[in-house]
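Please decode residue identities from the backbone states below.
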């Protein structure tokens, strides 16, 4: 019988769980090709019996092939550096040790996997760092970033907008004129930091088109630097995401350092940013994972009311739901944004969006409510402060195909206020506790 990727993984989890019945802590490891291996935390005092080891190996080979490692069963005490597996920072505990039954702990470890970052949560991220994310592109996320940045600046805040959509940069196009671009961008920091060469990088520029009031200002860290002879973007892109073998310089670590560097540069040239807006890449990419789970304390989840939106977020929420600790930590950092809402059927559209969002949150991220359980987190459907309750952005045909390089006053148009008014008011309240009214 042909064993496919998903089936092999489920079989491997079953075999690993059977090992824990005998009281051993187990780490189930899956490599870049999807091959599995079981690492048993044995000791000299309590070695794993040879007969049981032979049976476990046979089960892994028989039930998981071809997705099984050459050495499917490994003893931790025989490894050169067992702590790199048993205490890996991205270790995910499926079942804790149960002293009553004598079962050991079962954990999983994904090796070199794009997407593993979705399950790595920073407990206390920097405050007022906001990720704007959409599972699918084309929902107006970069435009919303620009509109929100200017609104906050008009409230007197110093705002840094960071374009993290390295594959399809957008924020700089709607916030900076080409002549105002800095010499370098986020992509340059990711490359230069790999060889310890970031000192003096010019990665931020103040926006002259997003003017604030009462000392407010908008700074922008674009994905790439100013176009010029000898400056190449693509050769950097295919190197930016790499972890550096043999060092502690992971992609996520360098990305965090890039955002910190840009914040420090704004502070050096003006003042510390009050708010940092991270315009994230869409899709299930590690860049988006890092922005949401490790770099921000609030994520605005953009979507339109269609099957692609809900199937995408279902996959994402399903990944989070595996770990109860992660669920508790991430859910109150989220807020849905309903983009491209048709004005002709606004109430009906938003009602349907809200209902489907609440169903998704309830299935994966909200607590099941038992009678008398006052501490359960499961906001009502109509709770306007709940993560599932959408901030609306109305669709406007006037925004389609707008050329921001020519229409430099586009942000002052009535159709922009009409489309984004409730979004910026709600987002501002979440970020700085203001009701969103400009002075």
């Amino acid at each position: 019988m042909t064993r496919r990727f998903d089936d092999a993984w489920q079989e491997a989890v079953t075999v690993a769980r059977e090992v824990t019945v005998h009281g051993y802590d187990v780490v189930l490891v899956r490599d870049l090709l999807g091959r599995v291996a079981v690492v048993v935390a044995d000791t000299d005092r309590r070695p794993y019996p040879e007969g049981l080891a032979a049976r476990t190996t046979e089960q892994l080979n028989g039930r998981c092939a071809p997705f099984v490692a050459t050495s499917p069963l490994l003893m931790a005490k025989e490894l050169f550096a067992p702590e790199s597996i048993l205490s890996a920072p991205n270790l995910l505990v499926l079942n804790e040790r149960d002293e009553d039954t004598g079962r050991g702990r079962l954990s999983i470890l994904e090796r070199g996997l794009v997407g593993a970052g979705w399950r790595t949560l920073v407990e206390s991220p920097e405050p007022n760092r906001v990720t704007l994310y959409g599972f699918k592109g084309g929902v107006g996320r970069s435009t919303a970033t620009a509109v929100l940045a200017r609104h906050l600046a008009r409230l007197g805040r110093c705002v840094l907008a960071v374009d993290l959509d390295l594959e399809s940069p957008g924020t700089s196009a709607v916030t900076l004129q080409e002549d105002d671009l800095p010499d370098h961008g986020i992509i340059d920091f990711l490359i230069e930091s790999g060889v310890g060469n970031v000192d003096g990088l010019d990665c931020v520029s103040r926006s002259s088109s997003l003017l604030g009031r009462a000392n407010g200002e908008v700074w922008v860290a674009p994905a790439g630097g100013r176009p010029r002879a000898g400056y190449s973007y693509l050769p950097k892109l295919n190197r930016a995401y790499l972890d550096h073998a043999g060092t502690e310089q992971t992609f996520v670590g360098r990305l965090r350092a890039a955002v910190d560097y840009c914040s420090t540069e704004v502070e050096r040239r003006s003042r510390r940013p009050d708010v940092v807006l991270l315009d994230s890449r869409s899709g299930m990419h590690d860049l988006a994972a890092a922005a949401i789970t490790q770099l921000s304390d609030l994520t605005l989840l953009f979507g339109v009311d269609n099957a692609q939106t809900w199937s995408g977020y279902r996959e994402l929420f399903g990944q989070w739901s595996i770990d109860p600790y992660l669920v508790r930590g991430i859910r109150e950092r989220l807020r849905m944004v309903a983009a491209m809402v048709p004005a002709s059927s606004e109430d009906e559209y938003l009602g349907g969006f809200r209902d489907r969002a609440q169903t998704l949150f309830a299935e994966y991220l909200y607590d099941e409510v038992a009678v008398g359980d006052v501490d359960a987190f499961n906001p009502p459907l109509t709770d306007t402060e709940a993560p599932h309750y959408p901030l609306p952005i109305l669709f406007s045909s006037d925004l389609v195909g707008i050329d921001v390089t020519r229409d430099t006053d586009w942000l002052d148009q009535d159709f922009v206020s009409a489309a984004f008014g409730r979004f910026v008011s709600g987002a501002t309240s979440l970020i700085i506790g203001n009701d969103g009214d400009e002075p």
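Observation: Residues 407 and 413 are 10 Å apart (CA to CA).
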